[in-house]
Write a structure and sequence with these properties.
The protein has about 475 residues and is α/β, with parallel strands linked by helices. About 35% of the residues lie in helices and about 20% in strands. The protein starts with 10 loop residues before the first strand and ends with a helix.
Length: about 475
Amino acid sequence: MSQIGSETDPLRVAIVGAGPAGFYTAERLFKEKSLHITVDMYDRLPTPFGLVRNGVAPDHLKIKSVTKVFDRLAKKPQFRFFGNVELGTDVTVEDLRNHYHQIVYSTGAQTDRYLDIPGIELKNSHPATEFVAWYNGHPDFRDYEFDLSQERVAVIGIGNVAVDVARILCRTRDELMETDIADYAMEQLVNSNVKEVVMLGRRGPAQAAFTPPEAKELGEMAGADACVLPEEAELDPLSQASLADADRGTMRNIEIIKELSQRARTDKPKKLTIRFLVSPTVLTGNGAGEVAGMRLVKNELYQTESGTLRPRATEQFEDIPVGLVFRSIGYRGVPIPGVPFHERWGVILNEKGRVLHEESNEPVLGEYASGWIKRGPSGVIGTNKPDAAETAECMLADFAEGKTLNPAQPGLDAAAELVQSRKPTFVSYEDWLRLDELELAAGEAQGRPRIKFTEVGEMLKALGKA
């Protein structure tokens, strides 16, 4: 009998989720030259790259260039992509256990954290995750509707996703033409009635969650002035005292915020107002059940026992008119049937990437997690690289100790035959490369980077699979 990890009997790994965490896990595994490892990557969408395609802001094309690294990995002979195959519908966790020695879940954080305030369910109140997926052309969200006839939009949150949403709402046609934003979204945004976007941060400038490049970009938009209220740009005494330990990013953010607070308004058609130390307490509606306004409470910072600064409400309130609201207070993972899940944290129950049994807290044999579904929605794309490497190291250590699944269906062909029988319209990586070429060609014809396919049916038709 051949040794697992040999050329004739490679270590067979299934990775569920074709985003950065999945690709970085494969990258680390492929560096193990003493072992023969094959990776089959599954994704429920026909397109790979996860949030790089469907979440990164379309005007951040440089960030999306990381897909070149993933592309090189995907072209290796020991890699296969099974797109348009959904775990739980087309194949089950049990199917994977029957065909692979190890399984990695890298499904990301697919939904948003809920904001529990009165009025949050009013019409025209949305999770930012849905808007981001809509303008990025995610097939599940392309038919969503957002009332862009409103003049004033509030974005609750002040992280990078909130900044992306605010910036996209403020972009001009010329700016959007340089992006790969979904074509239907570009038309609606260019013809929108939005005149002011208000971003709401519950803490102060020194605690802003966006990065300096994102903050700087807000002050450089062609069609919108970014401004900060001078009194809200000032640091409170506790924030001032915390600067002794502040990193360069925080100091740069404070500088940029101060500079924005001193700018005079120009004749640009739109205005972006960035607020600090305020929290929405209620959304008020009109007779049609739509958002018409928002009550804000002024916050103050206090120091916890551990030394961190947290916001708490004061007795000062303020009402502002607003017709459209996006909440951007964090992403959250979605459970996978049959895989232990930590409901409160919104992640797969794991230690350093090893999935743990819910009762015993012992590792589940041969099952792992990487990326946001492992650690929660934190960091940037590059943060997934060391995270994925940690998971891969655990996989290799477990393999060295003989701790792998013993699949009932040996051989590489069995998995491909299973997918073919369950989902004949699966999309291979070669299929994706054809879609990629078609998108790039369509973009070139219109003077844009690419025009995305946004419907699964369209993609399959273009590949002759419909």
